[in-house]
Amino acid sequence: MSHIVRKWTERISNAWALQDFQLKSATIRREVSPIQTTEYRLEIEWFPPGTAMIDDLNPPGTVYAEVNLTLDLLTSFIVVQNEDLRKKPLPLSSTKQRDVVAWIQENTGLQQKVDYELEREEQGENGSEYFFTSRLAGRKISPGGYLEVKINSEGVIVFFTLTGFFSKFYPKIQVEAASEEEPRNIEEWKNQQVILFGTLKESGYQLLYGVEEAFLDDVEERFILEWSNEKSIQKIPRSEHKPGKLWEDFRKSHIISEEEMDSSVPHPDAIPISQGEREACFQVITDYMRMHRPNESGKWVIERLERQHGMIEASVSPISTLDRIMDKFKFVYDSKDKSIIEILNKRELFEDLVDSSIPKPQVTKEEATAILNQDIFFEPYYLYDRKQKRLKSTWMIDCHMFVDAQTGKKIWE
Question: What is the pLDDT of residue 353?
Fold first, then answer.
């Protein structure tokens, strides 16, 4: 057992009353952080005394913990299925919010009203549960940070997780001074962000108008797919590997030793997509769309391109938001051998589930915008800029109401 694993297993065991539990596993993984940097995490499992795996499943009362080694911080402690078999675990003074908040500050350094705010709480016969989200100078942050704490009826914590981005843990990130000025061009943004979309119901489709949330000064990269049918199409390169096997192999490949943490090898998902990778991926997608939708040049756009599990994932949507109800593609691309691993086609996925046609909207976009006008709001945010590596002050447009495109009736989300 390495030094860092021994240190944390002993620390958690003593603090969380696991002295008589069996240490089942301890694994160090190379992971990617919420801001696309490389971090190292330690995952630990304990079994209750005298228990073992049952049909490849962990026994009741198993305890799981996760430590962010880069931050030197416990980020998860979970008693599986809340079946707590520990002897005399230390309870909080009470299950009230003030005692939960005091525990969070003592164990993470995060302060309420400075680093996070209460999102909601749930009280039940078996205990209390609290959900918190990250803040910076009173503003929400993107990417967000989340805290969840569950206390049983005896006042003992049986579930704790800290995930996502909290600015206090990344003090070197520059924070742009917040402007209290109201956002400009409000009406223009409202008109732009109200879109028509559909939801799947048992009886068919329901058409709704709603606000597509967006950050006001965050220009997302979009690539419109256009092609000419004059040139012949080369065979679309398809990988012979199964996605599930590739993802499992990828996950296993990032189980490392303590010594390997010093090598500073970046997590593949933290490496920016190069221009060459981008162009090669776009070409394969363009060829595929040209082959399967030859008459739809200029009607499709690549909206998102990111690394996941070492692969490149691309979301391809119709430019018309109405067409997105039944039509959308997701491509998983291997940049190493320049081949497509998987294609998810929304039309194929849903064609057997729904045989009804899409109804024609009876309410115009302009009418829907007028109906939603008083419900649309602009919320101050801090947005992490990956290119400039700083938190910039901005606003997000959003709305919690929808308009039924058939009746004009308002609907709460």
Answer: 56
Q: Give the DSSP letter string of 247-286.
A: HHHHHHHTEE-TGGGGG-PPPGGGSPPPHHHHHHHHHHHH
What's the rounded Cα separation, in Å, for the pair 337 and 75?
A: 37
Which H/E stretch holds residue 245? helix 243-253
Domain check: are 257 and 332 in the same one? yes
In whole angstroms, give the CA distance from residue 358 to residue 400. 24
Q: Which one of 174, 193, 221 terminates a domain?
A: 174
CA distance 66 to 215: 33
How many CB atoms sit inside 10 A of residue 165's CB? Answer: 21
Predicted pLDDT of residue 210? 96
Residues 211 and 325 in one domain: yes
Structural domain of 305: 182-413
Query: Coil, helix or strand for 147?
Result: strand
Q: Of 130, 157, 174, which closes a domain?
A: 174
Q: Does residue 133 share a domain with residue 192? A: no
What number of H helices and E strands is found in the chain? 7, 23
Residue 67 has a pLDDT of: 99
Domain tally, the chain:
2
Residues 124 and 153 in one domain: yes
Please tell me whether residues 146 and 226 are part of one structural domain.
no
191 contacts 105 by C-beta, under 8 angstroms: no
Asked whether residue 365 falls in the same domain as residue 315, the answer is yes
Q: pLDDT (tens digit, 9 = 90+) per residue, 185-198?
A: 899 999 999 999 88
Mean pLDDT by 10 residues, the chain (413 residues): 94 97 97 96 97 90 98 98 92 95 98 97 93 96 98 96 97 88 88 89 82 86 88 85 90 94 92 96 95 94 94 94 82 94 88 66 96 96 93 96 96 88
CA 94, 100, 104, 110 torsion: positive or negative?
A: negative
